Amino acid sequence: MAAAAVLAVAGSTLAQGTCRADLDGDGELTVFDFLEFQNLFAAGDLAADFDGDGELTIFDFLEFQNEFVAGCPSEPISLQMAGVPLAEYPHFEATRAFNQGDTVFLAIDPDRFPAIRGVTGDIYIVESRTNLEWASDPSLTDVRGMPQAHTFSALSIDGAEVALTGSETLAAANGLNISTGYDLVVDVDRDGALGDGDYVDGLAVHPADANGFSVFTNISEMGPLTPTMIDSSSSQGVLRLNYPAELASVGPLPIVVIVHGGGHDYRWYDYLQDQLSSWGWVSISVQNDFSGTGNRPLRHTDALIGEQATIAGGVLNGLIDSSRIVWIGHSLGGRECNIGSERLSDGFTPSNYSAEDMVLVSSIAANSIGGGGFEADPGDINYHMIWGSADGDISGSPSSFGGQTIPFRNYDRADGFKHSTYVHGADHNVFNCCGFRNFQGPASTEIGRTEAQQIAKATWTALIKHYGEGNTDAIDYVTRAWDGFKPLGVMDGTTLVHMYRPSTIDGGSRVIDDFQSNPSISQSSSGGSVTVSVSNAAEIRQADTNGSLTWTGSEPSNGMNYAFLSSDDSAGLVFDFNSPSFVEFQVIPSLGDVSGFDHLSFRTCQGTRHPNTIAQLEPVTFNVVLVDGSGTRSTIHVGAYEAGASEPYQRTGAGSGVGWQNEYGTIRIRLSDFLSQGSGLDLTDITAIRFEFAQDDGSTIGRLGLDEIEFTLER
Predict the structure, then answer these.
(1) Rounded distance, CA 694 to CA 458, Å?
(2) Where in the sequence is the signal peptide annotated (predicted)?
């Protein structure tokens, strides 16, 4: 009966030797393969050991039947193979970026791809190719000189990783590219060409997957071009211009406009301008007027483009690319950039460029209050903010200066792709050359100007190369857990918290709950039910309302600095736990097919000065569970990725106690990780997302905030 069911689906012509079920090697799946399996099994031949356990049992028959029904591949098998081993389930993390000198690992989960068991193939690292290039030339040439032979004998993804010989010496920077992209191929039939049944990482399903992986240079250091600094002016006033000495031969180049803060000087950002110039960007740093209108970045950008024939004697004429523009503003300069972005997003169009030409707006410890009808809302232009936890000016205290010192609300207002880089131990002026020290925090945590600027240079280099030049893999530097992956040139002991959310206006995410509607804790914003067994759960507006960070027990939103004005609608869930408990979000049927998405993404933070936070002052970890319509569950502990809810910076002030504002960090888990070890999870029919606390290896106690639970696409 089973054989008849199998034979009914057989019959397609296949490349010989590309899958195990073709046991007679004729390129077709027929009854003769079934008979061959029976003969091998009866003879005790381990060629029939399809489950790879070294014994011949009924499970080998079932595995053979499954592969027979599935059919042999008629084209290369595209999957993510490059990554790093993990100490616990899912045992391997597929990643896109590696620092130069790192070992790159390859893994294929034999439970998901059982045909790999027992195969001896050749592993190739090849120069990255587009799909069209692969189609026109499938030949394989390993950049290491020769491929790496390997027998895939692992029975599980746990232990299936293969260290790629020589990956530590792979080329990184390539001219103005901060990385070199590679594709990975497991040549199963060992014929030296990518063909049917071979495994490939880098055969792009979408543009973000253009490379199997990339190796990056030290992006905190300068690039190959020679910065040239000139003090000049335009119709809008004085400016400091920085461009590569090689501009005439490498231009046109994109442009960055830098706007300083109150009490600062436009000549205080040479380190940043040199960095940008060395990697192929022209920059100007301009004098601010602090008008609260966004005019400084708006008008100086317009003048730079319109007056390029005369600025600095016309050295830029015809050599700047006005279709790729970045703004960076510090403090009140960040406010000007945010308001300028708000105006562009609302339809204001200067003479020489438009909102479509803006690739990124970035603010450094921005004063976050609006004025004159503006809210300092970055709108739908890609946005980034960087900020120090020990800032004595833009402090984050909920009581200071009418809310202007809490820039996290700028992040929450933005609608485009957005990032936050929150740096422990950095003060307000470490991001320029010459501002006075206003450090507020434990002395042992101070990182100083050199380290802060290493982080800043690496962060902006990754961002402008990603958004301005299409280096898709550079996004790893601003999205992956900092403890698990950081750029070269920064100190291991520095703490940094990332937030990231893809644009909510282009279909890049499927929101399950962002708490912006249905304010009951029993219903998600997508309309599904929410079940909780944690303690003191409350859905809150994310604004600390009493001006103090002291935990009183009567303000669930204590420490939240993500909303301030009545128009700020940031909301989330808060709760605590000290025993096994959970929060479960129903995924309604119309949203349950998530097979076309890449990640489960959410952000989480610890509640500052809460007794549970103080009791275990370390990152809080927990389990994340996906459940499908048949009840199958797959569970991942976020600690596997060195991720978790970071402990609040241990700063005093703003009331009694120790600890500072609540620091949301975004955790992203690849959906394919939930399929490891043959979990059987059906990504086309997900019915629930469950967060489990005080279970297994998770933290035993905590006070958490939870927000932005969604499935996202890689971009």
Answers:
(1) 36
(2) 1-15
